[in-house]
Write a structure and sequence with these properties.
heterotrimer, A mainly alpha (about 290), B alpha/beta (about 250), C mainly alpha (about 325), A: about 290 residues, mainly alpha, ABC transporter involved in vitamin B12 uptake, BtuC, C: about 325 residues, two-stranded antiparallel sheet
Chain lengths: ~290, ~250, ~325
């Protein structure tokens, strides 16, 4: 492997890892704060990507489409939490698995009804089209850098919100002690709605910004979901910091294995996860 | 005298991070004696009991059972050596009958636990042992009642019956009388008086009258440390105990 | 009596009576016989999952691993152009699956709760991609079986696996045995401790039982029967491919067992037949049957909390 290829792969791995983080952070928040195992989380990634494709086709504007898609998914998140998820806070994980499998079915079939089953793509917006020279004869796409920057930005924002704000304080307290938060006079119902909708939005944002670099196909939600669960488990349930580090590790590992050992590429992250769990049964950054 | 000692701890400590839940405890428990353990809340009584039954591993120090070191064993190995414990928080099988609760406890001794075919009801010895344990605590008339449906006090009695059904030689009892009415408490006290003739009993209890009445040896723990061990009269006379204990009594009264 | 509830004593005989006699009035090659055989095989798989999830308390999202294993083992073990004996291969497949389940069980049972769900999922995904990416085992196309096994015992053969009706009765016989086997195991002394472990694991350990050993034994039993179901399915359709191992199959089986009434064992039959029936119905109604299926699942988990068996028990028990 040449140095040049190596650098490109490192960049690709980091960018993929950051994207995974974006989705996994929502998953781990919902799991850690509310104890909800949401298998339909990947569907929101898919919904984000399909909405993005639709709006770009209609309006032609990347920014407008992104804004519209985020708004719709956010409202969808609030709706789902209020109508369905809310009934499941005191139910066991099994019922949650069942509910969210049902939701996956519904979302997949809505996708097929509304958008059909052809693969789609979104073109890179003009302003971000082009490459940054790496060496004399190779470049790295600007858009991929843009994706990474957005992800890092959101990660920073998450870190700030959870670590420094009143909302974040309530979220952290809600993880450890639900009764206490309620005793403090916080409306736990609204808090949960916010966290859920916010988590779902993160997945959709990932779908939106990834749409120009990956194809939009049926079933994209499930494949990303399982990878993100791997990230969440490796990082330790509910830990944002753990999810960040695990996502980067998973991103880099799978990128490098797809070059070095293609036959192992799909398996390697699961092997990695099993190894981590054997050494630390609660994940790397368990609480 | 020395071979009377069935259970012994040596410099036993448990630290949670920087907090010393239990520090440097060396105690000896003798056969056919009731050894009371008292102390204010957070003194480390439950931690001690959890380590004596193997569910909690000590940070340092050892536990010996009849001269053999056992603190590194898995919890279920403790039970097989005859160390049985009851729980402070009622810890029973709520969805089955009282008889079945005791049958689960008793079955281990009679073998066939990996027998996939023979009906669970086929071993009469298990049933007899279970019935006997229920009779010991006075729950005969609750034999076929679901454990979830009996009163709280009765559940506490069932808790003890389940330990007895394992046929232990050492009983570790964590506040068996907590939440019981006077009459039920009297019954348990009577039972324990009977039991201590044959078992080594370690009793953690808040009910001071009961502890004073029952204990052959009494240990006071305070803040994770060993304060004093002696007979009831020795402990009562000790000024340090009054200081450590009365303070908390006032606090509890408030 | 291994069937302790009145509902079981009513439902189980009715089901097996109907299942036993209906094919006699139908054309042996009819679609119905083949389809119902498949559903019966699925019921065995779902029942083995129901045992693990509902009775042992091991929520696995990777049970399809063993379904696929049963199928792949059969194809991989049998020589390509040679007729093998069904009973001998049943034995081989069960023993090898049990050994594999033992090894996997030792690893996965170190974890609990969500971590257990996730590690079982991860291991089945690993197997999925192993076969998916493997040229040797046909990749995503899978493998085909060219020879149907013969079924003679001591030279006597009374079963022709190429005959759909014979195959149907083999599947039904297997389902009945699976049901009786689980019922016997759960009633046994072993079953008593398994039940206790599910209800209150800490207490069971505090009573001197090595709960790991009990869970591991159950994991091996459930997984082996799951593999047997996969073997039968591969036998029926003469092929195996990675979808046998997909997490969607694990998830669907979980839905079926909950729909039937989790932990009731006989409910697995009700759940599987209802699910497959609904799917068949919606598929014929509309191309977008998944929408109805999904909605039905959501409604069910909200409204029918104890599954069909739970509902029936409410009606039939005093």
């Amino acid at each position: 492997m040449t140095t040049e290829l190596f650098i490109v792969q490192v960049l690709n791995g980091i960018q993929y890892g950051l994207l995974l983080f974006l989705i996994a952070s929502g998953l781990t928040l919902v799991l850690g704060v509310m104890g909800i195992l949401n298998l339909a989380h990947g569907s929101m990634y898919m919904v984000g990507a399909y909405l993005m494709w639709y709006f770009v086709t209609v309006t032609g504007s990347f920014t407008v489409s992104a804004a519209l898609s985020v708004t719709i998914v956010l409202s969808l998140g609030i709706l789902i939490e209020r109508v369905l998820i809310q009934r499941f806070y005191n139910r066991n994980h099994l019922d949650q698995v069942l509910l969210t499998i049902g939701m996956i079915f519904v979302f997949n079939s809505l996708q097929s009804i509304l958008f059909g089953n052809d693969p789609y793509g979104v073109s890179v917006p003009d302003a971000l089209d082009g490459g940054i020279p790496l060496t004399n004869n190779s470049t790295y796409p600007v858009y991929r850098i843009f994706v990474a920057v957005i992800c890092v930005g959101i990660a920073g924002l998450l870190y700030f919100v959870i670590g420094r704000t009143r909302l974040g304080m309530m979220i952290r307290a809600g993880e450890s002690n639900r009764e206490m938060v309620e005793a403090l006079g916080v409306n736990i119902k609204s808090l949960y709605t916010i966290v859920f909708a916010f988590g779902v939005m993160l997945a959709a944002i990932a779908g939106i910004i990834a749409s120009p670099v990956s194809s939009i196909v049926p079933g994209m939600g499930e494949s990303v979901l399982i990878t993100c669960f791997v990230v969440v488990v490796i990082g330790g349930m509910g830990s944002i910091k753990g999810a960040f580090i695990a996502a980067l590790l998973v991103g880099l590992i799978s990128t490098f294995f797809s070059i070095l050992m293609p036959s192992m590429a799909n398996m390697i992250i699961y092997i990695f996860m099993i190894l981590v769990l054997l050494i630390k049964p609660q994940g790397l950054f368990a609480k | 005298m020395a071979n009377d000692i069935v259970l012994e701890t040596e410099a036993l400590s448990k630290h949670w991070g920087g907090i010393k839940a239990l520090n440097d405890i060396s105690m000896q428990f003798r056969d056919r004696q009731l050894h009371g353990v008292v102390g204010p809340n957070g003194a480390g009584k439950s931690t001690l009991l959890n380590m004596l039954c193997g569910t909690l591993k000590p940070t340092s120090g050892c536990i010996f059972h009849k001269g053999q070191r056992i603190d590194t064993l898995k919890p279920w190995r403790f039970v097989r050596r005859g160390i049985g414990r009851s729980f402070q928080k009622t810890n029973i099988y709520p969805e089955v009958t009282c008889l079945e609760n005791c049958a689960i406890s008793a079955q281990r001794r009679f073998g066939g636990n990996f027998n996939l075919i023979a009906s669970r009801h086929s071993n009469k010895l298990v049933r007899k042992a279970a019935e006997q344990a229920l009779a010991q605590v006075g729950l005969e008339d609750r034999t076929y009642t679901l454990a979830v449906e009996i009163s709280y006090g009765e559940q506490r009695q069932l808790e003890i019956a389940m330990v007895l059904a394992t046929n232990p030689c050492i009983l570790l009892l964590d506040e068996p009388m907590a939440g019981m009415g006077h009459e039920e408490s009297q019954r348990i006290i009577k039972l324990l008086k009977e039991l201590k003739k044959t078992y080594c009993i370690v009793l953690v209890e808040h009910d001071m009258d009961a502890i004073f009445e029952l204990s052959d040896q009494l240990t006071v723990l305070d803040n994770g440390s060993h304060l004093i061990t002696g007979t009831v009269d020795e402990v009562r006379a000790d000024p340090r105990v009054k200081e450590a204990y009365l303070g908390v009594d006032e606090e509890q009264a408030a | 009596m291994i069937f302790e509830k009145r509902t079981e004593r009513i439902i189980v005989p009715i089901f097996f009576m109907v299942a036993l006699f209906v094919p006699l009035f139908l054309d042996a090659n009819s679609f119905f016989v083949g389809k119902v055989s498949t559903i019966i095989i699925m019921s065995i798989f779902v029942m083995s999952l129901d045992f693990l999830v509902g009775r042992v308390g091991l929520i696995t999202l990777g049970h399809a691993l063993f379904y696929g294993l049963g199928g792949y083992l059969f194809v991989i073990l049998s020589p390509e152009y040679e007729v093998v004996n069904f009973w001998v291969y049943t034995f081989y497949i069960c023993i090898i699956s049990a050994l594999i389940a033992l090894v996997i069980g030792v690893v996965v049972l170190r974890t609990t709760g969500i971590y257990f769900i996730m590690i079982t999922l991860a291991i089945s995904q690993m197997a999925f991609y192993y076969f998916f990416d493997s040229l040797k085992y046909g990749g995503d196309d899978g493998l085909f079986i060219y020879m149907t096994p013969e079924t003679s015992i001591f030279g006597l053969s009374f079963l022709n696996l190429d005959d759909p009706q014979h195959f149907y009765y083999l599947a039904l016989f297997s389902l009945f045995n699976t049901l009786v086997f689980f019922k016997v195991v759960l009633r046994s002394r072993f079953g008593r401790i398994v039940e206790a472990t599910k209800q209150n694991p800490d207490r069971t350990e505090a009573l001197g039982y090595n709960i790991f050993a009990f869970r591991l034994t159950c994991y091996v039993i459930g997984s082996t029967l799951g593999a047997y179901a996969g073997f039968l399915f591969a036998l029926q359709y003469s092929f195996v491919n990675p979808t046998f191992l997909s997490w969607e199959l694990s998830g669907t089986a979980l839905v079926m067992s909950i729909l039937g009434g989790l932990g009731t064992i006989y409910g697995a039959i009700l759940g599987t037949f209802t699910y497959e029936g609904l799917q068949y119905f919606f598929e014929h109604l509309t191309k977008e049957w998944l929408l109805f299926m999904g909605t039905a699942i959501i409604m069910m988990v909200i409204l029918l909390r104890k599954g069909i068996a739970g509902y029936l028990e409410k009606l039939l028990e005093k």
